[in-house]
């Protein structure tokens, strides 16, 4: 390899590591991901491939050498007796076929369990003499957090077993879609920030210091693996994964639904397609399908890789897309004065939530994609968080569609707007612009800054409209009596604020 290539590759490796570390922290420590799991996994496997091909670039501190993130300091740490591994991801049927062929070389009569990959938070449940004694999050796979008090509030986690068995199982804690939507409706009414998706809502709910909050969130679990211990009092040891799950179900565990056991490749692919189509109608979010060897002896034959087992893979679904009508384009003014066009969509179900708005970024984005008001558009959730418009469908136009023009004046203050020559953004430069002021104060009150509880966007706007505040410093001069007179503000919430 030439030195230039060497340097470029090394630079890419550094870039990937830095990016992966940043996003892992956002995801695991702050519960605030910025990119989709799908994108994250792509970056992750790009790095894995480079490190495998160029072992000289490998480093024990590389993010590929650990499975997940750091445990937060708020909970006791738990060292798992059986490592909680993650799986190798595959993104296409070709990659999946490669895995199946690789297994077939060593195990010609391989039998697989094919099951949905629930989009939640992985936990280990430990029972001693039939009593739940500990629940721990996966953390980095070796050390997790003790969330026993919180997990005890989950209704489908048995607190005792019908037999005095000592065992550990692995489950996925998730928030049912219906619960997630109810929770976000209440948050919208209260003017508090909406939760990004059911998975983050589940993670946030499980890592509450107050178990009462967890209890109010109505979480659920699916048990998907027997980790260790005794499943029968007489010492009988099951020979397959399916047998362990059937037995766990008998013991009162809520085991994974929608799984099949098969030796037939065509049946595996058919079940993946089926789950992909059923995805929308399930009561919970899934983000892929797990294909694993069913006979436990076969798993021993295939063995474990350095970071992931060789007896299973996870097939990841691509980001979900839907077609809907773009009914209007509105323009909002941000904290720095940037005017951002937003698509108002005919509401559509996407990746577990109802979507009625999508970002259009800036006027160039709209122009390049020739997005018109009235168009049918394909939308997807980037990062399964922020919906975005992917493309339009000109073949479905009726002639009534209207091109969009950026307003010449700020929609908030009416002052003329400006666009720098080399910039995509259009800005309002009026220092006294009320929209900028309220975004600024919202930011000041947000979790990332001062974390002022109960100061949502609606309250900020009312305070500005009533002339009670003109900048962030005015917040400290506010008295409960000033605030209590406002709409939607009771005496109690005014005092809290
Ligand atoms: Zn303005």
What ligand molecules are bound, each kind once? zinc ion
What is the strand tally? Answer: 20
Low-confidence stretches: 67-71
Question: Percent of residues in helical segments?
Answer: 25-40%
Oligomer: single chain
What does the largest sheet look like? 7 strands, antiparallel
Mean pLDDT metric: 85
Percent of residues in β-strands = 15-25%
Please give the alpha-carbon distance between the first and last residues.
63 Å
Task: Give me the Rg, rounded.
Answer: 26 Å
- Label the structural class: alpha+beta
Q: How many helix segments?
A: 15
Backbone shape: globular
Please outline the helices and strands.
Layout: H1 3-29, H2 37-53, E1 77-79, E2 88-90, H3 93-106, E3 112-118, E4 121-128, E5 131-137, E6 143-145, H4 148-151, E7 167-174, H5 177-190, H6 198-206, H7 211-216, E8 220-229, H8 241-250, E9 260-262, H9 265-278, E10 286-293, H10 296-302, E11 312-316, E12 321-333, E13 338-350, E14 353-359, H11 363-368, E15 372-373, E16 376-382, E17 386-392, E18 402-403, E19 417-419, E20 426-428, H12 434-445, H13 457-465, H14 480-484, H15 491-496
Parallel strand pairs: 2-11
Antiparallel strand pairs: 1-6, 3-9, 3-10, 4-5, 4-7, 7-8, 10-11, 12-13, 12-16, 13-14, 13-20, 15-18, 16-17, 19-20
The chain binds zinc ion.
Zinc ion is lined by residues 333, 410, 412-413, 415, 428, 430, 433, 435.
